[in-house]
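Give me structure tokens for this 231-residue protein.
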Amino acid sequence: MLTFPVVEKQNGYITIIAHGKQIRFKEQQLPTEFIEWQIADRLKVFQSVTRGKKPVFLASHLPTLITFTHELVDFPLNVVSKGVGLTPVETELPTLVNQLYSSLKDLQNTDHSSSLQKRLDAALLLYGHPDKIDRYCLGGLEIFETQSFSNILNDPRVSLFFVGVAPTYHSYQINCIAEIVDSTQLFYQFVISMRGLFEQASFHFQQPKYPYAIKYHVVQILDKSLQVRGK
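Here you go.
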């Protein structure tokens, strides 16, 4: 049976045990510019797919995840692309999960393209309401349970590196504490339901199983967006 790292959240601080030591981090709020980029990028995709176009690449959704191995190896970092999105504040989770479950039930056995607008409307339950968004946390799903997952089990300190496209070139390194969340928890149920809205879409790589969600508690933000260099 797996032993998950201890991640405790209390009074604006995240406390972990890593390599036998207790380490404490202060939670940090995601910048408004980052939240606005995340929402705007998805709304563009939503508009695009309603016109019958397939999204090529959603940079705001696919950051690079960097984890650290505890083993003595020549290259102690593991790098992979991960699907990551915004999540609701805890007080909104029960309502949103119930709404998403209801939407998914209504969408069962429906053709994806003919029910697309209903799926987009369900996604907008969060992305259409910025006041419901948790500005201290991001979320994603764990699929393969390979090296990144193994590293998080031993050291939950991770970095998410987002790189946007022209003309804005958003770029952020967001350092986080990764908390593994099982299927009994509302956070997992929210993330898996959001994924379920578009699981059968042609632009998604279908997967039959998602054993865990990952909650990325934000503890440091480095804005690395391109700027004009001064003389």
